[in-house]
Design goal:
4 strands; two-stranded antiparallel ribbon; 399 residues; mainly alpha; 56% helix
Length: 399
Amino acid sequence: MEKEFMDFIEKVSNIEISKKNIEFNYGEETIYKVSVATGYPGIALLLYETYKYTNDIKYYKLCNEYLSETIDIIQANPMYSTSLFSGTMGILFVLATCSDGGSNYRNITTQLLNAYDVIFDEIYSILNKQVYNITKSKENFDLVNGVCGSLVCLLHISDVYGSEIHANLNTWIEKLTIFVESLINNKLIYKVKGGFFSDLGVSHGISGAINVLNASYNRGFMSTTALNTLKQSRDFLIESIIFHRNSCFIPNTLDDNMLNHRDAWCYGTPGVSFVLNNISRTLYDEKAISISKFLSKETLRRTKEERKLISPTFCHGYSGIAIINKILKNEELEKYFYNEIIKSKNSYAEFIFRDIEHQDNGYEHKDSVSLLEGSSGVLLTLLSRNKFHSLWYKLFCFI
């Protein structure tokens, strides 16, 4: 893999090559270039991990080039979106991760937080009105686009830079933590159904909210009811387990399609088992920790057709599950999926690996440089096989 990896780095050292690939796969709009999921910031995470892995400053310089290009693009509209995966929160997350322990990017981080300060009250007011809207749009609340992702970013900034990076940082975290707890309670206590509230996935559903509430709680941002909410969340996830075709899983959604399931980070049992593990550790519940690890291992009890795993990439492929099981210390599964990644190398791909996704008329193949559905995410996973050299994984598996 070393030769292929260096060939990849050589290609992305020319930002123009990455730009053309992003435009080909996603579109010419600038949002795709500044998105963590599809664009320059995701590539910067790989380059920073490469720098930490090799201790070669040239990779940090290249990482900085990608981040500088990103900042240049968004200067005209610094808070165009607060999405973690396609907006400014994602850029802030990457700046903190690549800051070398908070040593760099402090000024631009403060500037972007000042822009967030201008719109925070309006965002918070809209969120509180929307939570009572029966349509319950996922985009407003979830990890990828909504308030859960914003809270992950703010907690990460606080971890890296400290609360002094902005006078209102702790206030934002406190308010959003209370709001996220209210989302969870709407589901657990008031039995709200539909949209976000029927989705059990980490990326777009209630499990992502439970995980970020747990992270806030562990950092001292809590209400008087937060501990009880975490206990109820643990019970809710365990009660959602279904036994079907000789294996246990947690469904993607709580609706008429409860047997619809895939094993992935974004949806399915692996992602939820990670969340269950996190809150069970907070609660010092050894039995629930064992259940979380058992659920993750159940992936190998299902046939390949039932897993719906055919891609090496992070979002819905081998890389996401490899990282989850690395964190859970499920060594058998970690080894299995790292090997699956290696076996999926494609000699015809421009960027080593191809994303594969089921479509109604067959399969869709994507040869992408990106983080979420492309080779940057796969190579980050491989580079972190022995140990994490930076905090990039917290974008997906926040602890």
